[in-house]
Design brief:
Helix content is 74%, strand content 2%. With 232 residues, it is mainly α.
C-alpha cells in the first residue's frame, strides 16, 4: 500500500518537475546576459533601486520624479530579489528580472493544474509546455517589468476558479482554501498592475454565472473574504 502511494506521488510530481525545468529553461534564457531591453525596464529597475537606497517602499520615484504608472507590487518583489541575491549599488539587471522568471514558471505550473482538471493530464501537460515556450511569455520572463508576474496571478485566480466551479457542479463543498487562493491572487494582481486582473477574472465569472446557479457560485466564492483581502 505504501509503495502504491509513493508511486502515485512520484507520478504526480514528475510532470510538475518537467514543466518547472522546461519553463525555467526558457525563462532564464538571456536573463543574465542581456542588457536592459527597453527604457521601461531600466526605469522599473532604477525605481526599485531607489527604494532600496532610500528605504522608502511606498513612494515610487524615478530619479527626482514620481513614477506612479503602476502599483508598487512589482517593485516590492524586485526589491526582495535584489536584497536577497544582489545589491542595489551593483545595478545587476538579472536580479531585478527574477520575479518575472518566477512568474513565468508559476504560470506554467498553474496552467498544468487547470488543464489537468478540465481536460486530463496530457492536455494539461501540453498546455503548460506550450505556454512556457510561447515567445511572448518567454520574452516577458526575461524582462524586469510586470507582465510575467501578472500572468502568474491571473493563472492562479483562474485555476482556483476552475476548481471552485467544479466543486459547485459536483455538489461538493469548495472549502475555504480555494476561495482564499482566488482572492489572494486577485489582490496580488491588483498590486502588480491595477485592475487588469479584475477585467479577466470578472468576465470569466460573469460568463459562468450565465450557465450555472448564481447563488451557489457566489456562495462558493465567499465574496466577504474578498472584501477583507483586496486592497482598498
Amino acid at each position: 500500500m505504501r509503495q502504491a502511494e509513493d508511486s502515485g506521488y512520484k507520478a504526480r510530481l514528475a510532470p510538475l518537475a518537467l514543466i518547472g525545468a522546461f519553463a525555467a529553461l526558457f525563462a532564464f534564457a538571456g536573463a543574465f546576459t542581456m542588457p536592459p531591453l527597453d527604457r521601461d525596464e531600466a526605469r522599473f529597475a532604477q525605481a526599485t533601486a531607489q527604494m532600496l537606497e532610500t528605504g522608502d517602499f511606498i513612494s515610487i520615484r524615478f530619479q527626482d520624479e514620481e513614477r506612479n504608472k503602476k502599483p508598487a507590487g512589482i517593485h516590492w518583489l524586485q526589491a526582495a530579489a535584489v536584497a536577497t541575491f544582489s545589491d542595489a549599488s551593483a545595478r545587476q539587471i538579472w536580479a531585478y528580472r527574477l520575479p518575472s522568471v518566477v512568474g513565468a514558471i508559476l504560470a506554467a505550473l498553474l496552467t498544468y493544474s487547470a488543464g489537468t482538471r478540465l481536460f486530463g493530464d496530457r492536455v494539461g501537460l501540453l498546455g503548460a509546455l506550450l505556454l512556457a515556450s510561447a515567445p511572448g511569455v518567454a520574452g516577458e520572463a526575461t524582462i524586469a517589468k510586470t507582465d510575467a508576474m501578472l500572468l502568474a496571478c491571473v493563472t492562479a485566480a483562474q485555476t482556483a476558479l476552475i476548481y471552485i466551479v467544479s466543486a459547485v457542479i459536483e455538489n461538493r463543498r469548495a472549502g475555504a482554501l480555494l476561495p482564499l487562493l482566488f482572492w489572494i491572487a486577485i489582490g496580488a494582481g491588483i498590486l502588480i498592475k491595477g485592475p487588469i486582473i479584475l477585467m479577466v477574472c470578472g468576465s470569466t465569472t460573469a460568463a459562468l454565472m450565465l450557465r450555472m446557479p448564481r447563488r451557489k457560485l457566489i456562495k462558493a466564492l465567499r465574496p466577504a473574504l474578498g472584501l477583507m483581502i483586496l486592497p482598498p
